[in-house]
Amino acid sequence: MSTSEHRQLGRSGIQVPLLTFGGNVFGWTADQSTSFSLLDALVEKGLNFIDTADVYSRWVPGNEGGESETIIGNWLKQSGKRDKIILATKVGMDLGDGKTGLAPKYIRQAVEASLKRLQTDYIDLYQAHRDDEDTPLQDTLATFDALIKEGKVRAIGASNYSADRLSEALKISADAGLARYETLQPEYNLYDREGYESGLEAVVEEHGLGVINYYSLASGFLSGKYLKPEDAAKSARGQGVVEKYLNDRGLKIVHALVQVAEAHHASPTQVALAWQIARPSITAPIVSATSLAQVDELAKATQLKLTDADKRLLSEVSSY
Asked: What is the dihedral of CA 89, 92, 96, 99, to 10 degrees?
């Protein structure tokens, strides 16, 4: 089974499936051989939009960043499937030794390093990983614009920008005739709604941006596997999940997900993703997996059509 429906990323002309695969697991919770099998399965199922970043996975002891891109690059070289995937990566997070931010000279250095690790000559979507208030937006955008003209990048996006700064960046692009951010990558899920819905969503809808949101399953909480404090032991990030989400509102959301899932013979994970996919301003939520069974489950989420009553119930229990 492969997912057939596609959506356009903003006005870029790039068509992507209904889910984005988060490559933060490559070189972290998935070693190279596991990562290769995951990438093969993702392409086979039509989930061929892969999002990574130069900083992945610097947080792992012994890693320095670039591990995820390196694994993807090794897979691209071995498989020859560059034309089968839409490849997104990011620049701007701290890699140490002053390698951080969105100054023109640094973007130039970072994009060459990413292209080398990825073993490709172009990146489909190159994203500012976070806002850099020390660099004028116009300088950053002019550099991205030049990379597009040179054929190294097809489209650009922004991650972790505030509504005001995103609006300002879009205005500068329009006024100066520069390439604009076609996508936004915000935190968004059934539990964490307010940050996106209270300001960013209006900007996105006004300008026709694509949205590829991260933490779409609230670090696994919306899968329904954390129902009591001792469930924290179930994963590497369990303690933080339990502390943030395991409260009355969180449990109400999970119970509603379970209820809807049972009615559709689906899983809470699939329902949580289907609710996001059904939101008009969301293009393709970002999800990760470390096993082929999980990839299969994610692919099925793209086929799940919730009823209006399902969507209403989930929106009501998760209201903030």
From this structure: 100
Rg, Å, the chain Cα set: 19
**CA pair distance 105, 103, nearest whole angstrom:** 6
Name the catalytic one among 56, 126, 188, 191: 56
Which pLDDT band holds residue 163 (cuts at 50, 70, 90)? Answer: very high
Which one, of 82, 80, 72, 88, lies nearest residue 14 by Cα? 88
Catalytic-residue membership of 161: no
* Nearest alpha carbon to residue 87 among 1, 155, 32: 155
What is the tens place of the pLDDT at every residue in 254-280? 999 999 999 999 999 999 999 999 999
**Assigned domain for 235 exists:** no
Owning domain of residue 293: 6-217+276-305
Q: Work out how many domains the chain is built from and give that number.
A: 1
**pLDDT greater than 60 at residue 174:** yes
In a domain, 209, yes or no: yes
CATH of residue 120: 3.20.20.100
- Quickly count: other Cβ atoms within 10 Å of residue 57's Cβ: 22
pTM over 0.85: yes
State both tokens at 56.
């992945």
